[in-house]
Amino acid sequence: MSKTAAGKKLLHDLGYRLGQTLGEGSYSKVKAATSNKYKGPLAIKVVDRRRASPDFVHKFLPRELSILQMIRHPNIVRVFEFIEVCNGKLYIVMEAASTDLLQLVQQLGKLPCVPEARDIFAQIVGAVRYLHDRNLVHRDLKCENVLLTADGRRAKLTDFGFSKEANGYPDLSTTYCGSAAYASPEVLLGIPYDAKKYDMWSLGVVLYVMVTGCMPFDDTHIHSMPRRQKKGVLYPEGLPSLPEPCRALIAQLLQFSPASRPGVGQVAKNSWLKGDI
Ligand SMILES: Nc1ncnc2c1ncn2[C@@H]1O[C@H](COP(=O)(O)OP(=O)(O)O)[C@@H](O)[C@H]1O
Ligand SMILES: [Mg+2]
């Protein structure tokens, strides 16, 4: 029996049935699944250690697994089980979502600022607050990593592949991670960075993308991105005007200087986000 067939048989023996592919990354594939053990639709992230880089296998994957086991929050994807197979495959069994935030934005062009974008963003902020309060950082916050329920109303953060524990303060990170389009100037410049403030920048990009349907900074020429980021964010011409408190929040998050960006606790108290104004 081939190794792939052996993996499939093991999953089958454990009561899982794999369905269509929901998403694909560099070293993993996410498949729809059902099981006779858990009710409701499941998703199984299949990670192939044999095809992955040594850094991924020895550094990032162990962190992803240990952090996933530590966390439980209504706006973070729930993981039920990890299955290790001796053929190098690892299966992460989790609850399934219907779509992700990138797909939703692409489908609708952009999201109505209030209540849709605001309500989804408030949930993402809740999840990041939970992490930062426990000294965990995500470092790959982007629309593709925010899953959504079928009605598009409940958001669940996923993909802890670059997450880590930030021990003490200041604990500066040096690893370049995430996607350039969501990366802060200090990360792009290769300066040791405060990973929580990096997450705050990426949150600003996520909010901007939701309400405009565009990326705030074009990442075709990465070397010139920090210069453009320093000038401040621009909005596409002809975009219907956004509520001032929403623009103000984006501007705060996309501050060039990490020290000037608010912490997640402060953002959680933002009156526009809470629906007070
Ligand atoms: N639980 C899930 N339910 C539905 N779709 C998912 C789920 N997990 C991941 N996906 C889809 O698969 C994609 C890749 O998953 P992710 O965990 O982000 O892997 P990678 O580390 O390869 O980026 C996501 O962007 C999303 O579209
Ligand atoms: Mg991802």
TrEMBL record:
<keyword id="KW-0832">Ubl conjugation</keyword>
<keyword id="KW-0479">Metal-binding</keyword>
<dbReference type="GO" id="GO:0005524">
    <property type="term" value="F:ATP binding"/>
</dbReference>
<keyword id="KW-0963">Cytoplasm</keyword>
<feature type="binding site">
    <location>
        <position position="45"/>
    </location>
    <ligand>
        <name>ATP</name>
    </ligand>
</feature>
<dbReference type="InterPro" id="IPR000719">
    <property type="entry name" value="Prot_kinase_dom"/>
</dbReference>
<keyword id="KW-0460">Magnesium</keyword>
<dbReference type="InterPro" id="IPR008271">
    <property type="entry name" value="Ser/Thr_kinase_AS"/>
</dbReference>
<keyword id="KW-0539">Nucleus</keyword>
<keyword id="KW-0067">ATP-binding</keyword>
<comment type="similarity">
    <text>Belongs to the protein kinase superfamily. CAMK Ser/Thr protein kinase family.</text>
</comment>
<dbReference type="GO" id="GO:0050321">
    <property type="term" value="F:tau-protein kinase activity"/>
</dbReference>
<keyword id="KW-0282">Flagellum</keyword>
<protein>
    <recommendedName>
        <fullName>Testis-specific serine/threonine-protein kinase 6</fullName>
        <ecNumber>2.7.11.1</ecNumber>
    </recommendedName>
</protein>
<dbReference type="GO" id="GO:0005634">
    <property type="term" value="C:nucleus"/>
</dbReference>
<dbReference type="GO" id="GO:0007283">
    <property type="term" value="P:spermatogenesis"/>
</dbReference>
<dbReference type="InterPro" id="IPR017441">
    <property type="entry name" value="Protein_kinase_ATP_BS"/>
</dbReference>
<keyword id="KW-0217">Developmental protein</keyword>
<keyword id="KW-0723">Serine/threonine-protein kinase</keyword>
<dbReference type="GO" id="GO:0000226">
    <property type="term" value="P:microtubule cytoskeleton organization"/>
</dbReference>
<keyword id="KW-0744">Spermatogenesis</keyword>
<keyword id="KW-0206">Cytoskeleton</keyword>
<feature type="domain" description="Protein kinase">
    <location>
        <begin position="16"/>
        <end position="273"/>
    </location>
</feature>
<keyword id="KW-0969">Cilium</keyword>
<dbReference type="GO" id="GO:0035556">
    <property type="term" value="P:intracellular signal transduction"/>
</dbReference>
<dbReference type="GO" id="GO:0000287">
    <property type="term" value="F:magnesium ion binding"/>
</dbReference>
<keyword id="KW-0221">Differentiation</keyword>
<keyword id="KW-0808">Transferase</keyword>
<comment type="function">
    <text>Serine/threonine-protein kinase component of the sperm flagellar doublet microtubules. May act as a regulator of sperm motility by mediating phosphorylation of sperm doublet microtubule proteins. Plays a role in DNA condensation during postmeiotic chromatin remodeling and histone-to-protamine transition during spermatogenesis.</text>
</comment>
<dbReference type="InterPro" id="IPR011009">
    <property type="entry name" value="Kinase-like_dom_sf"/>
</dbReference>
<comment type="subunit">
    <text>Microtubule inner protein component of sperm flagellar doublet microtubules. Interacts with HSP90; this interaction stabilizes and activates TSSK6. Interacts with the heat shock proteins HSPCB, HSPA8 and HSPA1A. These interactions appear to be required for TSSK6 kinase activity. Interacts with TSACC; this interaction is direct and recruits TSACC to HSP90, which is essential for kinase activity.</text>
</comment>
<keyword id="KW-0966">Cell projection</keyword>
<keyword id="KW-0418">Kinase</keyword>
<keyword id="KW-0547">Nucleotide-binding</keyword>
<dbReference type="GO" id="GO:0030154">
    <property type="term" value="P:cell differentiation"/>
</dbReference>
<keyword id="KW-0597">Phosphoprotein</keyword>
<dbReference type="GO" id="GO:0005737">
    <property type="term" value="C:cytoplasm"/>
</dbReference>
<dbReference type="Pfam" id="PF00069">
    <property type="entry name" value="Pkinase"/>
</dbReference>
